[in-house]
Structure formats: structure tokens, C-alpha cells
């Protein structure tokens, strides 16, 4: 069981790209700043004009946690498992949360020895008919 994201008008292009196995980031068409999570207005210049740019899918582990029970019931049997925060190579202020795995469909509790600063690359796990989640493998 995985908690699924709520897909809205602002985030739909991100999730559509993820279904295709691509990592894209929303940017401002006015000032060029990339941003995540997607939102309707640029926090720098307040422009409502957006662009979507492909990313390399590479980054480094910025932070992580290994949760142990008690947890949400659907996740308790997986514990301990990892949750990583990855800073993207294109812009380290862009950070995505996911799991460190050995393969896209690998278990989220397989890798527990994690180092901050370790290089990773994105993979996508199909978790429903409509959603593929970004996950991370060691680079």
C-alpha cells in the first residue's frame, strides 16, 4: 500500500512526465527560476506563466530518515525502511522526497545504510494505473 499523491492542475505535468519515466520541473517563464513543488505563482517575481523543463534525474542525498514502528498500519510491516531527500544536480534547492532502492520496483526496506552526499539517479515505480513515483538508486 502506498499513499497516492493528489494530482491537481499545477502538478499534473509532473505526474504525466513521471508516467513516461521522465523527471521534469516547473519553472517561471518570466524569470526562469525552477521550483518544486509545482504551484501557480513564481515566489520570486509573482509571474503566473510557467514552463516545464526536463531534468537529468541526478542528484545527491541531502537528508534521510529510517522510520521504525509505530507507524501508519500499512507501512508498519515494511519497517524499518528509508525515506531520502534528494537535492537535484541542476539546482540543489530543488529537493524531492522518495525511497532509495536497488531497482524501480525494489523494496523500500532493502537499503538502510545511507550516506548524506551520496550520488543517486531517479527511477520510476508504477504504483497505480495513474501514478508512477520517483524513487532513487545509487549512481
Main beta-sheet annotation: 5 strands, antiparallel
How much helix is in the residues?
under 10%
Oligomer: single chain
- The end-to-end span amounts to 27 Å
What is the number of E strands? 8
Structural class determined from secondary elements: mainly beta
Helix run count: 2
Content of β-strand? 25-35%
Using the CA coordinates, give the radius of gyration: 16 Å
Mean pLDDT across residues: 95
Rough outline: globular
**How many independent structural domains?**
1
Unreliably modeled segments = none
Strand order of the biggest β-sheet? 6-5-4-7-8
Order of helices and strands: HEEEEHEEEE
Write the layout of secondary structure elements.
Elements: H1 12-19, E1 24-28, E2 34-35, E3 50-54, E4 58-65, H2 73-76, E5 83-88, E6 95-98, E7 119-126, E8 132-138
Antiparallel strand pairs: 1-2, 1-3, 4-5, 4-7, 5-6, 7-8
What characteristics describe this protein?
five-stranded antiparallel beta sheet, 139 residues, mainly beta, three-stranded antiparallel beta sheet
Outline of this structure?
The chain is mainly beta. The protein is about 10% helix and about 30% strand.
